[in-house]
Amino acid sequence: MSDLPEHVRRNRALWDDWARHYVAPGEESWSADEPRWGIWGVPESEIGILPENLVGTDAIELGCGTAYVSAWLARRGARVVGIDNSERQLATARRLQKQYGLYFPLLHGNAEAVPYPDQSFDFAISEYGACLWADPQRWVPEAARLLRPGGQLVFLTNSFLLTLCIPAEDGIAATDRLLRAAFGVHRVEWPGDPAVEFHLSHGDWLRLLRRSGFDIDDLVEVRPTADATTRYPFVTLEWARQWPCEEVWKARRRA
Ligand SMILES: C[S@@+](CC[C@H](N)C(=O)[O-])C[C@H]1O[C@@H](n2cnc3c(N)ncnc32)[C@H](O)[C@@H]1O
Predict the structure, then answer these.
(1) pLDDT digits (tens, 9 = 90+) for 104-116
(2) Does ligand 1 have an atom closer than 6 angstroms to the CB of 111?
(3) Would residue 61 be called left, alpha or beta, if left means φ above 0 and alpha means ψ between -120 and 50 degrees?
(4) Which of 8, 34, 105, 227 is 20 to 30 A off residue 184, Cα-Cα?
């Protein structure tokens, strides 16, 4: 524990506390046949986040939380491993594994330093996990190390534009004004909130991914349908129908 970087220690305490709010959503997502992504629950058939064929592939979820994404991968035939920084989140994941009789390894640890050998996986994914709460300068090169040549990395997180438009006060939705500078954004701490988040500009993601050994396949800007709902207060549907509030990066490990 004391070896962990300061942001990982802080986020661990926070997520152990927040885990209780993620039990019911985790249960709902485990029960879903079709994956639904992000805060608006965009169906997989619309957004196409997963590779078409996962059968027999080795996959890892970086910051798996209650591990419903891992469960979706396992049901599609992947040999999946989930890693998460919060033991409480993993406790929910373990209970749901038992309930569904669907077992795969769940590791308690930091996605910036995963205890697996180089080139262990074909597919790595993070939905608001390591891609938001771990340091990109650490977890992206780590994902590159873990993936085999040609392996795919997919992550979904807040859009950079949303990060610039969210008021610092908790519970208030993004406005149509840029509230902070775009240059130099990396580690983000909101006032009165112990969490440490990480956000990068598109140029910074692109250069980091390329420097770490990835080619970029796609950047999908998520647009919810006109009747979508969310339980999160930081963005309205009106906003998210006009500007992307979430983005999905797809990158491939260079041979
Ligand atoms: C929002 S949840 C993501 C899981 C799920 N997809 C969801 O959206 O509910 C964020 C998760 O990232 C985990 N996390 C934060 N920092 C991490 C790190 N450095 N390594 C691994 N997991 C981390 C947290 O413990 C938490 O369970």
Answers:
(1) 999 999 999 999 9
(2) yes
(3) beta
(4) 8
176 membership: H or E segment, kind and range = none
| pLDDT at residue 235 in the model | 97
Residue 126, ligand 1, Cβ within 6 A: no
Secondary structure E strands in the chain: 36-37, 42-43, 58-62, 79-84, 106-108, 121-127, 147-158, 187-188, 197-198, 214-222, 246-253
Q: Give the C-alpha separation, 151 to 251, whole Å.
A: 9
Span 78-134, pLDDT tens digits: 999 999 999 999 999 999 999 999 999 999 999 999 999 999 999 999 999 999 999
Q: Report CA(85)–ligand 1 centroid distance (Å).
A: 7
Residue from 123, 131, 158, 134 nearest 252 by CA: 123
Contacts of 156 (CB under 8 A, 6+ apart): 37, 38, 49, 126, 127, 128, 131, 222, 246, 247, 248
Atom of ligand 1 nearest to the CA of 64: 4
State the Cα angle at 117 between 48 and 16, rounded to 5°: 65
Among 4, 14, 15, residue to substitute to test ligand 1 (most atoms within 8 Å of Cβ): 15
Distance 12 CA to ligand 1 centre (A): 9
Of the residues 84, 114, 146, which should be mutated to test ligand 1's pocket, given the most ligand atoms within 8 Å of the CB?
84
pLDDT of residue 1: 60
Strands 106-108 and 79-84: parallel
| Global pTM value | 0.98
CA of 107 to the centre of ligand 1 (A): 12
Given the CA of residue 15, which atom of ligand 1 is nearest to it? 25
